[in-house]
Amino acid sequence: MKSHQNNNKRIMKILNTIIILLVASNFTYARKNQSRTTDGAGEKLTQEEAATPDKKIKVFVLSGQSGMAGFGDSKKLSDAMRKGNDRILMFEDGEWQPLKPFKVYHEKYMKQFELTEFSFGPEIPFAYAMAEAFPDETIGIVKQAAGGAGVLTWHPNWTAEQADRTGDGSRGNLFKALTDKVNAATASADCELAGFVWMQGAKDMAFVDVAKEYLQNLQAMVAGVRKEVGAEDMPFLYTTHRPGAANIPDDLSDVVPTVIEGRRPGGMFVLKAQWDAQEAIPNAKMMIIRDMEKHVDGTHMSSAAILELGGMLANAYLDMGK
């Protein structure tokens, strides 16, 4: 891995470029060779866009809730980011292909978040930052995210009954969905599994009994994913949120969590578990997120915040190699 200082300089450079591109949003780009699905779940890319990597792909697995899914507005990206290239890839529809926005939400979400084309999440700025940090590498993203899902939906011993403790039994086995996708990606090309990035926890905060078990469920999920994809020491980077209004400190070493009022009564149990996971999970790093610019709904991150988040995740990942 490059030196930490050089990596940080590269990341700052790419972040500055990304933010400039965000401001310069009056681009026009005619997307070709795409057919939109009618169920609102996403955009199925055509065979013509599939990439055939000619060198090993440095693969990053990204998963979690709606913060990972993202409600970024693709119209606020540059033509280059909207079109993609053959050095920064994603695995979708069973193929490696250029990374670019492609997801189309259900109509009500497109209207709510004022999306007129496609959405994007932190995978795009993260991948571009990784490409800047590793200029001789092909970067690959395998992403699977499900908004409003509890950690038990990703449990290696998944059952609908357990997932229903957070009301998610009908969503199916997300652990299998994630690991099947990763294994399909690595089977289709020469790959190195370089990291696992996780953004999740808000759903569990609403259920005190599940929140109290968050650490053991997170440990099981990480160990299960690592084992299933054959990368038992894969770096694990995860986020934790510190709402500014709550005045929660960074260091929760001495905190004894209690039930709190509001719609997330188990919040402190999850935050404490995320703090403790730094020691409980091997080769893991926690990244604290404080107040970020919000979207029109006042909850999810804006396009600008998602771009910033991708750079933050990249810096945190690179710090793991110090």
Question: How would you summarize the topology of this molecule?
Answer:
Layout: H1 4-23, E1 34-36, E2 43-45, E3 57-64, H2 66-69, E4 72-73, H3 79-83, E5 88-92, E6 95-98, H4 107-112, E7 119-120, H5 123-133, E8 138-145, H6 160-163, H7 174-187, E9 191-199, H8 202-205, H9 208-211, H10 214-229, E10 236-241, H11 267-280, E11 284-289, H12 303-319
Parallel strand pairs: 3-8, 3-9, 5-8, 9-10, 10-11
Antiparallel strand pairs: 1-2, 4-7, 5-6
Helix pairs in contact: 1-5, 1-12, 5-12, 7-10, 10-11
Description:
- The protein has helices spanning 4-23, 66-69, 79-83, 107-112, 123-133, 160-163, 174-187, 202-205, 208-211, 214-229, 267-280, 303-319, and strands at residues 34-36, 43-45, 57-64, 72-73, 88-92, 95-98, 119-120, 138-145, 191-199, 236-241, 284-289.
- The protein has 12 helices and 11 strands.
- The radius of gyration is 19 Å and the shape is globular.
- By secondary structure, the chain is α/β, with parallel strands linked by helices.
- The strands form 3 sheets. The chain has a 7-stranded mixed beta sheet with strand order 6-5-8-3-9-10-11, with helices on both faces. Strands 1-2 form a two-stranded antiparallel sheet.
- It has a domain at 4-201 and 293-319: Rossmann fold (3-Layer(aba) Sandwich).
